[in-house]
Amino acid sequence: MKRDKLRKAYVPMTETAFYILLSLLEPRHGYGIMKHVEELTKGRIQLGSGTVYGTLTKMQRDELIHVYSTKERKKMYQITVDGQHILKIEMHRLSELHSNAMKYGGDLL
Amino acid sequence: MIGFFRPFWSYNILAMESWLKTMSEQGFQLADFNSRTRRFYFVKAFHSQPSMYRISYAKQNVLPPALIKDGWQKVVHKGKWHILQHEQSNEIATYPEREGVIRRNKRLMYLFTTLLIYFSFALLPLVFMFMLFIATGEFNVSIVGNPFAVIIGMMVPVLLSVYACYSLVKLNKANKQLLFGKEKGIYKWRRKSYKKQANFSRGKLAWKYAPDRLEAWLENMALAGNELIAVSRFGARFYFRRTKPKHIRYCVDYQNHLDDAYFDLHRQAGWTLLYSQTGFLDKWSIWAKVYEQGEAVPQLYYDEGHKLKHARRVTMTHLAFLIPAILVYVYIFRDFALYNGDTFKLLVFGIIIIQFTAFFIQSSLYYKRMKKKVERY
């Protein structure tokens, strides 16, 4: 029931939300996420710190991510089981997208 | 097993945590607690380990893996309350979050504020009576009906109001302690020390209704060689220093929920905080970032979705306050106009209505501008 609701709210995901959730397969702090996504996309996607803060707050409220803090009171984020579930659904969707694109439009490349 | 009664324990989580720690140092380990009777039960352990405790409030029942790995374990779990314990066998590297408790406190504060507003109307006649008594020294009130019931009926709102006031003070203090650590300190220091270095200052009122206009004004000031270095406490006066012309991007940000992580993240991303208001309802920040000509203009929100969402949040917050206020004032104005032709009163209420309507129009126009801007890209 709860997962159905989450699926409706998050799938299909925006590119920023997808990359933020993907980078949280490992624990990271907010700025770490920004840097990681920039590296992954070779600078194509630049995340604003306001966007990251807003997305994290929302994902935390929907329990897609865990939050804890370090000794230095730095906030750390990590994906939850529900978050992994949503990420998996989105990855299936993307892989279908990719395979169809290759099958029917591969000649264009 | 011994039990302790802690009626208002949830109002001060930090004190509770240190109390649990002290108890464990004396050999008493927390075994259970009853959230309804507010009793905490302890067992005397023979070789008890002095432990660290953290209280969290969350729907989620699962601890973050990083906390479990670090040695945290759940002792008691009642409803959404979780009491976690760390035996301090290794140095503690991670801590459970406070977010849930902070949000719960905030919800309670909204509730108590509503209660207080309601009772202040209910108690108004009582206050008038008391003032009359003070002024005239006469107390000739005839009670209709059962006097006992009337007294009880008056006592209940009085006691509930006292309870609401006590709770509000306690919760506000608790949230301030839980939310803001070093970041607020850095900001306060900056405001006070930079204000003295200013060459001149300019007054600016009601910029919250059109934050994009404030951004544009500040950016043009920077291009003309006037850099903003501080803003007065209530955001009405802007302090500038003369420098060489600079490209500075200013972002005026509004949030419903703010914590240390917010300031930390923006600061790490290279932004400087020039103004911060972290009141109960109003949470505004002004951020600045210098960039070179030809470089992409830095933004807090690059994607259109978040840009628009932010604009909508600003406008909706204003309208939620302005619309009821305008309606109430129009109603009062109409009442005065019909039954009580006092020109002074009419003038005052007329000006208020015009001013609030102007804010209403400004707010709506701001949203329209932002929408147009986003659609253009």
From TrEMBL, chain A:
Keywords: DNA-binding. InterPro entries: Metal_resp_DNA-bind_regulator, Tscrpt_reg_PadR_N, WH-like_DNA-bd_sf, WH_DNA-bd_sf. It holds the Pfam family PadR. Residues 22-87 form the Transcription regulator PadR N-terminal domain. One of its GO terms (molecular function) is DNA binding. The keyword Metal-binding does not apply. This is DNA-binding transcriptional regulator, PadR family.
Automatic annotation (TrEMBL), chain B:
This is DUF2812 domain-containing protein. It comes from the Bacteria. InterPro entries: DUF2812 (IPR021359). The keyword Transmembrane applies. Keywords: Membrane, Transmembrane, Transmembrane helix. The chain crosses the membrane at residues 108-135, 147-169, 316-334, 346-367. The keyword Protein biosynthesis does not apply.
